[in-house]
Amino acid sequence: MTLYINIAENLLSSWAAVAEITQQLPKLRILNISENRLAKPDAALRPAFASLQILMANRQRYTWEEVLQCAPMWPDVRRLTLVTNRIRSLAPPPPDVFQQLDSLDLDSNPIGDWAEVMKLAALPKLRDLGLANTGLRRLEVPEQSDALFPALQAIVLDSNQIDEWSSVSVLDRLPSLVDVTLRNNPVTAIEKPETTRELIIARVSKLQVLNRTEVTREERRWAELDYLRRFGPAWREAGGRLPAAERGDAWRTFLQTHPRYPAICDAWGAPEDSELKITSDTISANMVSVRLVLLTREGEQLRDLERRLPLTMRLSKLKVLVNKLFRGNIKQLELSYRSPGQDESREIAMDRDRDLRFFGVEEGDLIIARY
C-alpha cells in the first residue's frame, strides 16, 4: 500500500504527467509536487487524485486563481501546503471545493492585506492556518464573528508587520481559536518578551498555547491581574468607575484599545484606587519600605524587620535576601504579601520570578516568609 510519494523538483511540466504516476497508486494519501511548474490541469484527471488527503505544492509560482482551477482534482484533500507561491489575492472557494480542508499553509506568500484572508472565513472545517511572512500589518475581525472561521483553532502569524495591539485583541473574536504563534512582529518588540507574552494572553481569552508553549491556568491568572494593574489608570480616567449610562467617548476609545478589560474586571475584580497610585515620592524613586515577617506554618510570628527595597527586585533576589536575614533553607522558603491590617486569607502568593512592581507591592506592605 503506497501512502506517500515525493516527486518534488523533478522538472515535471503538467498535471497529466503527475497523473500517470498517481493513477497507478489508488491508495495514495500524501503527495509532494513542490518545485514543479505544472500547466493547467484537465478535469478528466480527477480520478487520479481521488484518494489524496495531503498535498504539498510549495514554490510552484501558483496564484490563488490557479490553485482553485486545480482544486476540483483533490475532492478529499485535508491538508494543503502552498508555501512561497505567488498568492497575492484570495477568493472564496466554490461550494464544492475544500469542504474537507482542515489545514492550509500560506506562509511566505505576498498577501499583505488581512481582508484577503477573510475571504477564506467560510471554510467549514479549517482548523490550522499558516500566515507567517505574508506581509500582514493590520488584522480586523467583525464583532459578530461566530460564523467566521468557525473551526479555526490555530494560526501562525510569525514574521509579519503587525504593529498595533488592536490586531492582537481581535483574535479573541475568532470563536474556536486556542493556539497562536506570534513572533518577530513590531508589536512583539515593544516590551520585554515575558511582558509581551502576558499581554497577548490577557487579550485573547481562550488561548491555550502561545508560541508553541502551553498557557497554564496560573499563567493566565497572573497575566490578567498584571493587565488590570498596568492599564488601571487609563481605565479609571476613561470612566471605568462611572455608571454605564454616564460613560462617554473616552470610554468607547478605551474599549477599542482594551476590549477585554471589563471581562477581566468581572473575573478578578476592578482595581482599587490604592493599587493605581503612582504619584508618591517613594514610588517615583522606585523604592518601597516593607515589613519582612517570618511566620511558622502554624502562624506564630518569629521575626519582623523593616527594609527598603527596589520595586525592580525580582523574586529570586528577594528570596536570597530574606534567607540571609532569617537563615532558613531557601529550598523550602515560600513568600507571600498582603496589606497591613488584612488577615491571612487576603495573602497573595509570590510564586513567579517577577519583580515587586509586578506583584503590586506597595509602601508599608507585609512580605510573609514561611519555611
TrEMBL record:
Keyword tags: Leucine-rich repeat, Repeat
Pfam families tied to this protein: LRR_9 (PF14580)
Protein name: Tubulin-specific chaperone E
Transmembrane region(s): none
Highest taxon, organism lineage: Eukaryota
Cleaved signal peptide residues: none
Entry keyword Repeat: yes
Family annotation (PANTHER family): CILIA- AND FLAGELLA-ASSOCIATED PROTEIN 410-RELATED, LEUCINE RICH REPEAT PROTEIN
UniProt cross-references to InterPro entries, sorted A to Z: Leu-rich_rpt (IPR001611), LRR_dom_sf (IPR032675), Ubiquitin-like_domsf (IPR029071)
SUPFAM superfamilies: RNI-like, Ubiquitin-like
Biological processes annotated in GO: cytoskeleton organization
Annotated gene: Tbce
